[in-house]
Amino acid sequence: MTKPAPVLWWVRRDLRLADNPALTHAIASGGPVIPVFIHDDTVSGLGAAPKWRLGLGLEVFGKTLEGAGSRLILRRGDALEVLQELIEETGATAVVWSRAYDPDAIARDTDVKSALKDQGVAVESCAGHLLFEPWQVETKAGGYYKVYTPYWRAVRDDPVAACLPAPKQIAAPQEWPRSDRLSEWQMGAAMNRGADVVRAYACVGEAAALQRLEDFLDGPVEDYKEGRDYPDRHVTSGLSENLTYGEIASRRLWHAGRQALEQGAAGAEHFLKELVWREFAYHLAYHTPRMLTRNWREEWDDFNWRGDNDDAEKWRRGMTGEPMVDAAMRELYTTGTMHNRLRMIAGSYLTKHLLTDWRVGQAWFEETLIDWDPASNAMGWQWVAGSGPDASPFFRVFNPETQGEKFDGKQSYRDLYLKGGEDEEGRTPAEDFYKAIPRSWGITADTPRPDRMISLKEGRDRALAVYKGAKEQG
DNA sequence: TGAAATGTTGGGGCG
DNA sequence: ACGCCCCAACATTTC
Questions:
Q1: CB of A16 within 8 A of CB of A3?
Q2: How far is Cα A32 from Cα A92, in angstroms, rounded to an integer?
């Protein structure tokens, strides 16, 4: 009897052993499994922080695989060519991967799949990144959902498959193919001085993600419904970072949330709802991929957005003079994430008070967020700008000061980033900000806080006036 | 997953 | 005890 041929497991955004249908599928073939990550155009095109964070994820995941008797093979180049080379080198007869859903990845994967099938290779793409495949959720009329609440109602009781166990051992090939060294890839090259700083705030890998989930279920979930709006309460799960790279499966979170709900955890339903926001973003992006780069509502193309500009540069640097906004922008640069409430506040300020195109903000988040996700980021920005399908109307302008009073009443969030002091982990975010930013920004601890560039009333009135003018013209 | 303007109500001070 | 005013505290409307 001949031994089964090896299977290539094309590792992408699924850096985990547990709950991984693609891996389970590969193992089920009975042959050795060769995990390979390919540095192709979709990787070179990443923003500085997501690319760096992906590098950390790969480093940790390589070790995780070694713990299971396997390895992570790293190759650089065109995905199809790399896979073909590896098939040639290893004698693999099958390739399996976890589906991706953004248009570039879909186009690439479609080509790869048909080319490999043509040469007689068995190819399987598996679900795993989402709870619900975007094409499987339909309205009664057979279309896709454009509004969150009906989408939520449609999916909340849908069955979600049970979690899969992590394999203890993954069968290794007789001989491992050559691998690049991760350090050669220079994944952190664009991080300026930020890498060491943000590292202290990142939470990398499958084990860390599972621990994070446990910590969240152990208490914060109770207070999640209300507490998640308060950036100083640390009630959010923080798991978006891990979901982005697939270090934990969304369905693991789903089942955990459902279980917490059954056990009477007050905030569990809202946790599930937040997971479903992510699903909804993928649903929208799948059905209208132009959402990633263009106004979802096309009438917004006529709106006189400002392109990139000096005010936007101040916004990026946390130098608008608006404390809530500046604290938020510092949180982003220093930690690679931003509390959800602050994303709304900072986004509203850029698009409304500064009348700047949401895509300017989207691009900065893409550069700086370690939990960057194309669908969620685009949906969030279009939501706040008012150009999306289920958007806040344009005239809904957040007042950063009022928001500060409501959600940061003691100013502890603003103080932590603008004045100094330690966070609950003993880190010093304000000092860390000065360490992380480019010297060319010319900002140090001695730099005085800037005055507001525009009063909140003026900014609001101006935005509403421009909006009114555009509406009358359009 | 707003904000601000406007409207309504009801308690308390006071003549 | 009463009307009047003030003004929070909500509630509703409008952008």
A1: no
A2: 9
Inter-CA distances, A348 with A81, A303, A389, A463, Å: 44, 16, 17, 11
Distance A411 CA to B13 C1' (A): 37
> Whole-prediction pTM value?
0.97
Bases of chain C within 7 A of a CB of the protein: 15
- Taking only the tens place, the pLDDT of each residue in A95-128 is 999 999 999 999 999 999 999 999 999 999 999 9
- Specify the nucleotide whose C1' lies closest to residue A384 (CA): B1
Give the domain range for residue A453. 291-473
Task: Give the count of beta carbons closer than 10 Å to the beta carbon of residue A211.
Answer: 12
Residues A21 and A96 in one domain: yes
Q: What is the CATH number of the domain that holds A335?
A: 1.10.579.10
**Tens-place pLDDT, residues A334-346:** 999 999 999 999 9
A1 — pLDDT class (breaks 50, 70, 90):
low
Q: Does a structural domain hold residue A209?
A: yes
Average pLDDT, chain A: 96
CA separation for the pair A354, A460 (Å, rounded): 9
Task: Residue A17: name the closest of A286, A248, A316, A350 by CA.
Answer: A248
Spatial distance from the CA of A407 to the C1' of C8 (Å): 22
Kindly list the protein residues whose beta carbon lies within 7 Å of any strand B atom. A 148, 274, 277, 340-341, 344, 392, 395-399, 402-403, 406, 456-457, 460
Q: Chain B positions under 7 Å from a protein CB?
A: 1-4
Residue A183 forms part of a structural domain: no
